[in-house]
Amino acid sequence: MPRALSIAQQIEKLREEIRRHEELYYVLDNPEISDAEYDALIEKLQKLEQKHPEYVTPDSPTQRVGGRPADGFAEVVHRQPMLSLDNSYNIDELRAFDQRCRRLADGRSLEYVAELKIDGLSIALHYENQILVRGVTRGDGRIGEDVTQNARTIRSVPLKLRTKEKSISGEVEVRGEVFIPRKVFERINAEREAQDEPRFANPRNAAAGTIRQLDSKIVASRKLDMFAYDLLAGDRKPFATHWEALNWLEKAGLRVSPERALCSSIDAVIEFANRMEARRDDLDYEIDGLVVKVNSTALQDEFGTTNKAPRWAIAYKYAARQATTKVNGIVVQVGRTGALTPVANLDPVSLAGTTVSRATLHNADEVKRLGIRIGDWVLIEKGGDVIPKVLKVIESKRTGEEKPFRMPKKCPVCGGEISRPEGEVVSRCVAADCPAQLEGRLLHFASRRAMRIEGLGESLVHQFVESGKIRDAGDLYSLTLDDIASLERMATKSASNLLAQIEASKQRDLSNLIYGLGLRHVGDHTATTLARQFGSLEALSKATVQELDDVPEIGLTVAQSVRDWFDDEGNIELCKRLEAAGVRTKMDKPSGPANDTFAGKLFVLTGTLAAFTRDEARAAIEARGGRVTSSISKKTDYLVAGEEAGSKLDKATELGVKVVDEEAFKKML
Ligand code: IVH
């Protein structure tokens, strides 16, 4: 029988187990146990340590949380100053950096490591004989603050390094960037709002505010994370290359961003920069660019530093996505569904490569949350969406001249009633004849993915509606040349072009028509599914909720919404008029695929294909009975990966989904 373990052994065994789960969870993103099971392990360890305080060590997982709040933070002088970086803002400046480096390298070969520039704050972690002894903020680069207790709460910071190398065993310093993942950031802000505390403007501020919190319990609840990007042993770099240092850090149990590249030329760096910029919104943390570093440690030493930044590294900044500007006015727009959207008119400001003069305020709740007034200075941000949003009011810039703004009680366009159902954030104008809604519906009907009537823009639609020439989409098809030519700034030539466009739109696919009718919850993809399934507008109009719900990819919400739309007599009337005007309301061929080589197979498309647009590839798959979805799951049969395939490719590999490149895809077809 094996001998019973001593208390010390039991404790150490438990710690090892917990460390393994922490690494699986926080570093490898691949947990094996639930949060509750993890908590139970911690609790067990806590109990053992309480009974036997003589065995409590600073690297115990229990030491992450708690600890007495300190009276402020002690100052620590950095062993090596924490420098900042010079910036470059475009490819030319990046090439100029490369030229400087090559001049300094004087013919010797030169490699770069390109890393993400994580938008957080830097920290230095001191390890002595593998044990984390201190965490220090950057401070002014020379002197930082001792935030050890808080650093311990970061689950991806190992309290003990996993390393065997003798050369890297004494005093080790790991440097990296502390950040808050986007999702956690949203959660923190929601909580702060509920407690009437001001929101953090961005994840970086939230991370900086958090690491300097005196109560490490609060810090622990904020779920900071860290990517390591530098290593010192004593006060020198222990590896011949930066690349090796990063790999070592990873092996030692730190989290190192997998998005890194060893580049043999500046062109390879640029390629990586562009690839990552395209994926910027898919990452679950904020980045503001890249950091490009000379790989060879010997060359780094030789190039040296200025008193501010190393000569062997540079930041390559993506276009800023936040800016401050002034609110000149707030207007309330009424969309095609009657939704009221407050929009701020701004002093034009340059943001992420475009000039911005409007930002959405979303809805009444958001206006209230922001407390925005006309004349305020605001911080705006452009994310993945086309129109930027207002993050916060800069109250310190108020002069007292600002004018309050209130959401209107009636529709600002038609004066109709506004309704806001319980539990919804959106207020809507419910007037059936609101001209703003009609304009929105017409613009949607004419839009590219719907009936594609080129030339029918905002100003024309407005004039048609205002003059009463058009009361619904059906009226478009009885417009005469005179009707159009009599409008402002309309010459006969453009009037006849528009007529030709309207005529041509009659031949669009049934799916375009269904999308163009603007049923709630029916996007262009759903419209295609419905067209395929029912084959005609008439058949669709007669489908029961059950029949609709039975269609793959159609859920109950959509089913109900489609039924509701066709239950409205006015809508049925519109369908009849469109049909009478000669608009195609049936599928060309009988529904069903041309052949069934892909019957039942689920495809996902990613990257750029040389010979197909996305729509063409989709059509080719669907014509053979296959289906295309946008996200990968275990059910996916094939991922068709073109050039520059991104995270979907990783996901497919992870899930064991078969990946085919363009050549293979063509063969399958
Ligand atoms: S290296 C001497 N690598 O950017 C080298 N910095 O603008 C100094 N940062 O203070 C830093 N991601 O807080 C490096 N992969 C990365 C980084 C990174 C973010 C931050 C860091 C630094 C600032 C300089």
Describe the structure.
The protein has 669 residues and is of the alpha+beta class. It folds into five domains: 7-63, Helix hairpin bin (Helix Hairpins); 75-317, D-amino Acid Aminotransferase, Chain A, domain 1 (2-Layer Sandwich), CATH 3.30.470.30; 322-428, Nucleic acid-binding proteins (OB fold (Dihydrolipoamide Acetyltransferase, E2P), Beta Barrel); 435-580, DNA polymerase, domain 1; 602-668, BRCT domain (Rossmann fold). Helices cover 36% and strands 19% of the residues. A five-stranded mixed β-sheet has the order 2-11-10-3-9. The protein has a five-stranded antiparallel β-sheet with strand order 14-13-12-16-17. Helix 12 (435-446) packs across helix 13 and helix 16 packs across helix 17 (524-534). The longest helix is centred in the N-terminal third of the chain and has 21 residues, at 7-27. The N and C termini lie far apart (64 Å). The model is unreliable at 66-71 (pLDDT under 50). It binds 2-(butylsulfanyl)adenosine. 2-(butylsulfanyl)adenosine binds at residues 83-85, 115, 117-118, 122, 138, 177, 229-230, 291, 310, 313, 315.
Keywords for this entry:
669 residues; alpha+beta; Helix Hairpins; D-amino Acid Aminotransferase, Chain A, domain 1; OB fold (Dihydrolipoamide Acetyltransferase, E2P); 5 domains; 5-stranded antiparallel beta sheet; 24 helices
